C-alpha cells in the first residue's frame, strides 16, 4: 500500500478541517469514530493482509520510508495494563483527553511492518542481554519495550541508581535482561541538571574519553542500541587531553566558541571506532536523531506542540537542526560501515533510522501532559505549564521504534 492507499471511512473524520486544528478542536473526533472503528476493523485488516502478501513477493523494503495509516486495533497496551511507564510519559494518566494519536501504525511503502510479537521476541532472546545506551529519549523507548514485553512475562527491576537513570530489568521465564545505561553524550561528562533541564553550572565534556559507565558494561551485552545528539545542543565546556579547549554557548566566559557540529561528529567517530575495534562483537543498532516538534518557542521559552494528527507526506520538511544532526549521523555511520565491510571484520552494525517516521508525528509528544493537570476542568493556568515536545507519550508513536527493532533483529 503506497501513498495512494484507500483508508476506511472513519479515517475521513480524522482529516476533516476541524480535526486538523490544534488545541482542543478535535477532542470529540475519537468518540465519533469508535463506531466506524468497530465496523471497519475486520475489512481493514483483510485489506492490509492481502496487500502485505502481495508486496512481500517484491523482495524489497525500506523500513524507514513510509506513512502513518489509521489503525483500528489501537495500541498493543495501555497505561492501565502496563505499570512501567514513567509519570512524565504517562499522558493518559496526566489528563490527556484525546485518543486519536493511539490509532495509527507505521506502514513502509514497499512492504508491511508486523506489530511487535512479545513471545517471539523473548523466545529468540532467551539467555541474552540488551543494553540501551544514551539519554532520556532512549529511556523513553525502553519504557515502550518493557510494556510490550510485559504482556508475555512480568519483568523484575533488579537494579536502579539513585536518580533511576541507570536501570536493569530481568525477565525470569526467559532469563532475558534489559539494561538502561545513562550516557547522554556517549563521552565522559560532568552534569548538574534536573528533570526540567535546569542546570546549576556548565556541563563539562571530555571529548577524548568515552563514558566509562557504558564502556565498563559493554562486554556483558549481546545486543546494543546506542544513540545521542540532543545534549550536544546544550551549553558545555569542552575538554581534551586534560585541558579546556573551548565552549559551546558560554556567553559569559572568555572561551573559544566551538559550536557542536564538529564535536558531535568527533564523538560518533570515537564511538563507532570503539564498536568496530573491540574484541566483543554484539549486534549494535545505531539509532538516529529523534526530532522535536516545538512551535512558537523551545523547551524553556514557551514552545508548544498542540497538533493532534500526524503530518501527511510532504506536509512537514523538518527543522534545520534535524538536517544538520542527522546528516552527521548518516555520514559517520556509512563511513564506519564501509570500513568494517572492507576489513572483513565480524561487526554486526545496523542503522535504526527513526527520524522520518517520528518527524511525521507532532501529535505524539507529552506536551503539557508531562505532569498531571485537570485541563478537562478548565484549568486557567494551563498556559503556564511547561510543554514537552521532545519525549513521547507511552503508549504512542515510539512503539513503532520497537516494531522496527524486532524486524531488524529477527527478520
UniProtKB/TrEMBL annotation:
Its main location: Golgi. InterPro entries: TBL, TBL_C, TBL_N. It is found in: Golgi apparatus membrane. Keywords: Disulfide bond, Glycoprotein, Golgi apparatus, Membrane, Signal-anchor, Transferase, Transmembrane, Transmembrane helix. It is a single-pass type II membrane protein. Residues 113-407 form the Trichome birefringence-like C-terminal domain. This is Trichome birefringence-like N-terminal domain-containing protein. It comes from Lolium multiflorum.
Amino acid at each position: 500500500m503506497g501513498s495512494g492507499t484507500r483508508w476506511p471511512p472513519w479515517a475521513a473524520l480524522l482529516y476533516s478541517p476541524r480535526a486538523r486544528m490544534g488545541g482542543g478542536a478535535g477532542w470529540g473526533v475519537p468518540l465519533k469514530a469508535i463506531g466506524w472503528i468497530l465496523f471497519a476493523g475486520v475489512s481493514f485488516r483483510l485489506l492490509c493482509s492481502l496487500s502485505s502478501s502481495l508486496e512481500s513477493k517484491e523482495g524489497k523494503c525500506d523500513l524507514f520510508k513510509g506513512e502513518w495509516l489509521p489503525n483500528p486495533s489501537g495500541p498493543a497496551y495501555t497505561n492501565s495494563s502496563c505499570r512501567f511507564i514513567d509519570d512524565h510519559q504517562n499522558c493518559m494518566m496526566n489528563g490527556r483527553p484525546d485518543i486519536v494519536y493511539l490509532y495509527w501504525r507505521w506502514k513502509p511503502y514497499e512492504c508491511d511492518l508486523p506489530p511487535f510479537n512479545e513471545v517471539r521476541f523473548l523466545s529468540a532472546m532467551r539467555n541474552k542481554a540488551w543494553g540501551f545506551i544514551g539519554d532520556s529519549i532512549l529511556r523513553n523507548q525502553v519504557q515502550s519495550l518493557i510494556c510490550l514485553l510485559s504482556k508475555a512475562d512480568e519483568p523484575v527491576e533488579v537494579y536502579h541508581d539513585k536518580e533511576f537513570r541507570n536501570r536493569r530489568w530481568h525477565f525470569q521465564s526467559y532469563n532475558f535482561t534489559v539494561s538502561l545505561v545513562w550516557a547522554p553524550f556517549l563521552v565522559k561528562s560532568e552534569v548538574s541538571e534536573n528533570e526540567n533541564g535546569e542546570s546549576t553550572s556548565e556541563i563539562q565534556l571530555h571529548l577524548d574519553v568515552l563514558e566509562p559507565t557504558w564502556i565498563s558494561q559493554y562486554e556483558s551485552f549481546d545486543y546494543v542500541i546506542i544513540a545521542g545528539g540532543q545534549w550536544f545542543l546544550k551549553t558545555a565546556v569542552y575538554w581534551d587531553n586534560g585541558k579546556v579547549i573551548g565552549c559551546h554557548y558560554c556567553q559569559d566566559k572568555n572561551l573559544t566558541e566551538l559550536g557542536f557540529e564538529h564535536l558531535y561528529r568527533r564523538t560518533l567517530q570515537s564511538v563507532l571506532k570503539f564498536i568496530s575495534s573491540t574484541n566483543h562483537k554484539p549486534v549494535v543498532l545505531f539509532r538516529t536523531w529523534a526530532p522535536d516538534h516545538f512551535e512558537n518557542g523551545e523547551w524553556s521559552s514557551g514552545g508548544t506542540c498542540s497538533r493532534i494528527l500526524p503530518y501527511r507526506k510532504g506536509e512537514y520538511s523538518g527543522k534545520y537542526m534535524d538536517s544538520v544532526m542527522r546528516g552527521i549521523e548518516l555520514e559517520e555511520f556509512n563511513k564506519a560501515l564501509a570500513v568494517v565491510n572492507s576489513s572483513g571484520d565480524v561487526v554486526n552494525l545496523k542503522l535504526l533510522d527513526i527520524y522520518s517516521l517520528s518527524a511525521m508525528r507532532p501529535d505524539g509528544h507529552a506536551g503539557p501532559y508531562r505532569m498531571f493537570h485537570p485541563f478537562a476542568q478548565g484549568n486557567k493556568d494551563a498556559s503556564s505549564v511547561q510543554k514537552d515536545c521532545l519525549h513521547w507519550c507511552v503508549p504512542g508513536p515510539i512503539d513503532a521504534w520497537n516494531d522496527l527493532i524486532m524486524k531488524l533483529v529477527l527478520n
